[in-house]
Amino acid sequence: MHGMDVVNKPPDIGNDQSSSTLLSTVQRELSDDLPSLETVRQMIKYETSLRLSESVQQLLDLYHKDDNAITVILDSIQQHVVEHFGYSHVNILRSALSRFPDDPVIKEAFYIKHNKITQGLVNQGESAVERINKLFRSHASAMQLLTIYIAEAHARDQWPAGKTISCVDQPTILEQRLDNARQFKDKYNFEMPMLVDSMNNTFHTTYGSWPFRFYVINNGKLVFKAEPGETTYSYDMDELDAWIASFYQEKNI
């Protein structure tokens, strides 16, 4: 694996040519066959060691504001792993759980147990907090808006994605979640009222909110639930704005 010097502006890795330099593999004939369970276990252990390595954590830290770059890095790691073991298709690794659903090693794999898809949230140049604060100011007079803080998607001690994103451990008691929520609101001047999910993850279990989602509940019924894009896996908050605008028009607000 090649290291990368930290620079003020990360180089563009959003294309195949540049991303191919992230990891190098000796050229050899690769198999299209399905590997054995033991081989898949070794692949997962190797992938985990790469993802948690200092060099990869530095890359994730460097590109933490670029969802596309993060995806390229993680995809490159998985492709490198399967080729390292003599196979060609990355789906060999990604389909491990469906092939061996009861294997304890595979079930404990970081990318299965803790993987949380990075969700794009805002327009380029606009922070998530700015967008949500703007939403709150625009509609708070006509409807109740709440944010629910749930389990960490990339906790420092579970599935780290660089020191910038993964700045806290996964809370194990409610007071830790409450403290994280308070610190976030203070640090980022987050204006919307914030609640905290229970340690049984009741809200997430009920609404499928991990790692990020937004909903509209009207007259006690769930009437809108955001779905990620089929190709980008990101959420478009414009959909929420559009629903609210339509609601205002219908109610003559």
From TrEMBL:
Record-level GO BP terms: hormone biosynthetic process
The protein's name in its UniProt record: Iodothyronine deiodinase
UniProt similarity note: Belongs to the iodothyronine deiodinase family.
Sequence segments annotated as region (Disordered): 1-20
Single Gene Ontology MF annotation: thyroxine 5'-deiodinase activity
Statement: the UniProt record of this protein carries the keyword Flavoprotein: no
Stored Gene3D superfamilies: Glutaredoxin (3.40.30.10)
Keywords, sorted A to Z: Oxidoreductase, Selenocysteine, Thyroid hormones biosynthesis
InterPro entries attached to this UniProt entry: Iodothyronine_deiodinase (IPR000643), Thioredoxin-like_sf (IPR036249)
Role: Responsible for the deiodination of T4 (3,5,3',5'-tetraiodothyronine).
